[in-house]
Amino acid sequence: MTTTAIRLAPSTPLAKIGAIFRRDAIVTLSYPGNFAISWVSILVEVVIAWYISMLVHPSAKYGGGSGEVAGYFQFIAINFALVRFQTAALNSFADAIRDGQLTGTLEVVLATPTSLPVLVLSSGLWSFTLTALQTTFFLIVAVVFGLDLSHTNLLTAAVFLVLTIAAVSPLGVLAAALAMVIKKTGPVEWLSLASASLFGGVYVPLSSLAMWLQVIGSCLPISHALVGFRAAAAGVPLSHVAGEAVWLLGSAVLLTPLALWIFVRAVNKARVDGTLAMY
Fold first, then answer.
1. What is the phi/psi pair of residue 234, to 5°?
2. Which of 260, 21, 14, 19 is nearest to 129 (CA)?
3. Which residues pair with 59 in a beta bridge?
4. Do 180 and 97 meet the contact criterion of CB atoms below 8 Å apart?
5. Are 21 and 122 spatial neighbours (Cβ–Cβ below 8 Å)?
6. Which of 53, 78, 168, 179 is the most exposed place for a label (fewest CB within 10 A)?
7. Which residues are CB-neighbours of 250 under 8 A, at least 6 positions away?
8. Closest by CA position to 136, among listed 223, 25, 42, 51
9. Of the candidates 164, 270, 264, which has an alpha carbon nearest to the alpha carbon of residue 222?
């Protein structure tokens, strides 16, 4: 099918994905104050991370796994930047479903011949795009404060970026299914922040935690993703962190069909119960 044909056929899955992307972008930009604050908060976040890092001595445990000594700012800045993708994945799908319920558009969209996988997966596209832009801005500001990205292995970083989105997106779809049932997204946001903060190795290296916390943390995609990103920043080749990449790939392959199946079940249950538009 040609590009022209796609543009003239809004009923195609690609056209529907584009429409959902534009809808979410328009909704976000219709609140300019909130949009501006989200960028200002990035500056504040970097400054706070920099001040905290001044209290911690450099150590090899903050490096990328190749034995080099690194400062705490190098460790926490990369973690803060990339944990945004997990937060976006966990919140975007559920928030999109919740917004659809509040504005009354969810029931209308579901009345069209739009497959549920296309609907739910497209709902995160704008959020991931915005997160990528804000993460880039975060890293640029962090470089001004001393973050060293001069040795970054771009191949390792690109592979882990794709695998991280693929591995955490199913969790977001599960969160959307939960939002369809309980009509709230608060527990999802709490779970996102708490799990990453306590077990994911965001603030301290996973190896510094108690053994039982390490076991829990090793089961979370974010812990493997952060190891990969820190290794990429240190210039470590992809082959040296292949185990982490395989873990993320396996998680995505196993969880994606399961999450979509549960989401379809949740939507069908809401249709039968007549609670699709309830909030």
1. -85, 0
2. 21
3. 70
4. yes
5. yes
6. 53
7. none
8. 42
9. 164
Confidence (pTM): 0.79
pLDDT of residue 184: 65
| pLDDT over 60 (residue 192) | yes
Q: How many CA atoms lie within 13 A of 56 on its CB side?
A: 20
Q: What is the pLDDT of residue 214?
A: 86
Q: Residue 260's Cα: distance from chain center in Å?
A: 17
Rounded Cα distance, 126 and 138, in Å:
18
What does the pLDDT look like over 142-190, one tens digit per residue? 999 999 998 899 999 999 989 988 888 888 888 878 777 776 666 666 6
Q: How many CA atoms lie within 13 A of 28 on its CB side?
A: 23
As a whole number of Å, the end-to-end CA separation of the chain is 40
Q: Identity (one letter) of the amino acid at 225?
A: A
**Total residue count of the chain as it appears in this document:** 279
Cα separation, 31 vs 148, whole angstroms:
34
Closest CA to 267 of 179, 191, 185: 179
The answer to whether the beta carbons of residues 45 and 138 sit under 8 Å apart is yes
**Phi-psi region for residue 278, left (φ > 0), alpha (ψ -120 to 50) or beta?**
beta
Quote the pLDDT of residue 3: 45
Provide the token pair at 266.
């949740």
Residue 91 vs residues 107, 124, 125: alpha-carbon distances, Å: 20, 9, 12
- Residue 279 reports pLDDT greater than 70: no
Token duo for residue 227:
């190891």
pLDDT, tens digit (0-9, with 9 covering 90-100), for 94-148: 777 777 777 667 777 777 776 777 777 777 788 888 988 999 999 999 999 999 9
Share of the chain above pLDDT 90, in %: 22
Instruction: Give the pLDDT confidence score for residue 187 in this predicted structure.
Output: 65
